[in-house]
Amino acid sequence: MQFELHEGLLIGCLSVFTAVAAVTDLRTRKIPNKLTVPAFVLGLVFQLVFHPYAPTILGSLLDAAAAFALGFGMLFVLWIIGGGGGGDAKMMGALSVWLGWKMTVAVLILSTFFVLIGTLSVMVYQTINHGMRKTREKMASAGSGDRQQRRLMTYAFPVALATWIVLLWFHLKPHLVG
User: Fold this and answer.
1) Quick one: how many helices (H) and strands (E) in the chain?
2) Which among 107, 28, 119 has a CA at the least distance from the CA of 67?
3) 125-156 pLDDT, tens per residue?
4) 25-84 per-position pLDDT tens digit
5) DSSP category for residue 176
6) What's the whole-model pTM score?
7) Sign (positive/negative) of CA torsion 71, 73, 75, 76?
8) How many CB atoms lie within 10 A of CB 49?
9) DSSP 8-class letter at 144
10) In Å, what is the CA distance from 23 to each residue of 51, 144, 170?
11) Is the dihedral of CA 18, 86, 123, 110 positive or negative?
């Protein structure tokens, strides 16, 4: 099994980027611009050099732009309405430039599923340990506080997990089947 150069770069760079973002988000509840901006720029360079999602550079840049609009746009809307962080939107935007629109859709769907499972797990855990009444009071009071305090879990970890699975599915599966 051999990967092409662009596949190795994609998997390696995005594995490191998402792992660093997830750890940073878990520790500080922030994803800094000094991580997302270089990842975005390197994603554009990746598209210019390899144009893996279209036969031409222009086609690949259009695919990256569509992916960015989708990934960043969806999380930007969530940030505006108070459902996520600005760093999450920037992380997804940078990631999307690398992934192209098809893998971006897959990461968004899978990470949403992981967030739902994680949030439900946290709520069940808190209910078991603190009781239904205290958990309900905590959830109700969290809506009035700081954005960061309202979130039950960070978003970067589910995105990282979803990205790794999607990369394996899109890039490892063809090597195993074919």
Assistant:
1) 8, 0
2) 107
3) 888 888 888 877 777 666 555 555 556 678 99
4) 999 999 999 999 999 999 999 999 998 888 899 999 999 999 999 999 999 998 998 888
5) H
6) 0.86
7) positive
8) 13
9) T
10) 30, 27, 25
11) negative
